[in-house]
Structures are given as structure tokens and as C-alpha cells.
Amino acid sequence: MTLHEKNEELMSDLMEWLNKPTELSKITIAPLSSDVSFALKRWKEEERERQFWGRTLVRCLCAHVEAVLFSLRCLTLSQTHISIVPLLPQEVNLLTDVTRPRGIRQNVQETFRLFGKVNGATVSIDYAAAGFGDLHSVFEKRNMLMHPKGPFDVEVRDKVVDTVGRASIWFEGALTSGLEQVSKHLHDEAEGLRAAQKRKT
User: What is the pTM of this model?
Assistant: First the structure.
């Protein structure tokens, strides 16, 4: 099982446990994940079209990451009315996109933090890892591709594709870790409640 498949399973299990719909998330994220794999496959196979597929790969990964983060923020927002941990107004604004995150770094950090917060958990992610910096670099390259100011802005060298690979691995690993931490916390809380009920009976 790949990290992405594991993440889909964890996200599905967590959302099902919370009685939240999963279909919208699945039909949004799954095609984007497939696009990343397809673009990378074509980049490896079609040497004469490497620039095209390199640009496509960068854009596809960024779209996938943003879709996952958006889905996670939606899930977080849906839990606010049942959470015992209230969110600050500025935190709700981040979840609803009233306030836009300042770049991908804040987007990732705040999404994971708030997801943990509404579930009463502290999500610990390794933001010092090189892969987090790689993710930032990929988004910077995506912005250059979307708003080119010169011929070199649309060039995608092999090292950029390598950066995409490392960024993808880091993000999938961070997502796995975040989901597992929250899932374990909720499981432990539920077990604690069951144990307390048994002691009363």
C-alpha cells in the first residue's frame, strides 16, 4: 500500500467515524492524485516532451496538495460545532478562506494545527525537514509558471522534478502522520470514556 492509498484510507476511516460524507473529497482528490502519477510517467517516457510534462507535473502536484488541504479544512470546520475546544475568529476565517494563508507554508501548518485543535489533539509535524522546504520551492515554481516574466521562468529542469518528488514524499508522510495522530487521540479518548463507563456500572 502506498502512502497516498494509506492516507485515503485513514481520511475515509476518520471521516466515517465522525459520520461525515467522503464522496466529495474522494472525487476531488483522486483524479488530481492520478494526474500527478500520469504526468511523472509521461515525463520519464517522453524525452522530447519533457518540458511540457515537467510543467504539468509541477501544476498537478500543487493542485493535489491544495485540494487535500482544502478538504482537511472543510472537515475541521464541520467539527467546530461539536468540538469542546473553541476556535478563535481569525482561525475560523482561515478555515473559510476569508483570510488567505500567507503562502503554502502557513497553509500547511495552520491546516494541520487547526485539525488537531478541534479534535483536542496536538499534531506534531516535522517542518524542519528538507521536504517541507522542497514543497515551498515547488509552489514558487508553480507561481513562476503561472505568471512568467521571462523564458527561464517556464523552464523545468530535472532537478525541479527531483524536488517535486521529495516534496510529494514529505507531504504524503506529513498527512499520514497528522491523520494517524488525530485518529489515535480520538481512539484513546473513546477508550477512556468506555473504561470510565464500565467502572460506573
Answer: 0.84
Is residue 170 a contact partner of residue 131, using CB atoms and an 8 Å limit?
yes
pLDDT tens column, 95-151: 988 888 889 999 999 999 999 999 899 999 999 999 999 999 999 999 999 999 999
Q: How many other β-carbons are positioned within 10 Å of the β-carbon of residue 64? A: 24
Contacts of 102 (CB under 8 A, 6+ apart): none
Distance CA 9, CA 58 (A): 25
Closest Cα to residue 166, out of 199, 133, 188?
133
Nearest to 178 by CA among 28, 68, 16, 22: 68
Spell out the residues 6+ positions from residue 149 whose beta carbon is closer than 8 angstroms to its own. none
**Residue 46 phi/psi, 5° resolution?**
-105, 85
Burial class of residue 6 (count of CB atoms within 10 Å of its CB; 0-12, 13-18, 19+): middle
